[in-house]
Amino acid sequence: MLVEQSRSLLCTATAGRVDPAVRYMTISTVLHEAAHNLGPSHEYRVDDRTDGQVFGGPLASTLEELKAQDRGAVFLRLARRPRDHEQGDADKTHVRDVLWSFGHIAQGMNDARGSRSHTRNSRRCRWVSSTSRVLRWNAEEKAANGRDVGCFEVDLGKWPAAVETLRGSRSASSRAAIVRLAEKTRDEWVTDGTPWAALRGTIQERWLRARRASFVYSVTSP
Ligand SMILES: [Zn+2]
Hints:
This protein is mostly helical. It has one domain. It has helices at residues 2-9, 12-15, 23-36, 51-55, 57-79, 87-106, 118-130, 159-167, 175-190, 195-207; strands spanning 135-142, 149-154. It has a two-stranded antiparallel ribbon. A hairpin with a 6-residue loop joins strand 1 and strand 2. Helix 3 crosses helix 5 and helix 5 (57-79) packs across helix 8. The longest helix has 23 residues, at 57-79. It binds zinc ion. Residues 32, 36, 65, 68 line the site of zinc ion.
């Protein structure tokens, strides 16, 4: 299903780098979760106020997810040494990260209770903004499946520079400036009626065509 979904959204060159092996997804997840445990988080206080008091609960949660996700991307760059990994491995991981963000986009921006999903919003904001020069929409080109018109190309050559941009993206000078920057980024990529919102709709439509797995559990007593 992953291959089918990716071939409906990616152009041929990028789709050729999709490897469904689980290891190309696991490393990003591990680094994201590790990053949650590094640096300031909700139990810290600045001027005797928690992040929830400074930013408001929803935005604080979004920023925490943003922290974990962008640190994960930086750590992946730092951890990679040419002698340890082939460049092809890194490229496969990056393409899987993009597909993973498509999956979040496809599930919509609100959770089941109608409130915004902080994880999805932050991950989406983060990925789209950081990859704005990496991810390119080719409106006229056919996707790798040969049927859908319009596809995404991932320019992996620009990936390292985009990650470096993330590294410096949270150097806003004051609390008010951080809040403004966070809200601007969130609104730019999450609101309706923008060119990106139309592409979000395309991602959602193609991604959700694939059948979804159902899990059925049964509990038996000995
Ligand atoms: Zn997280």
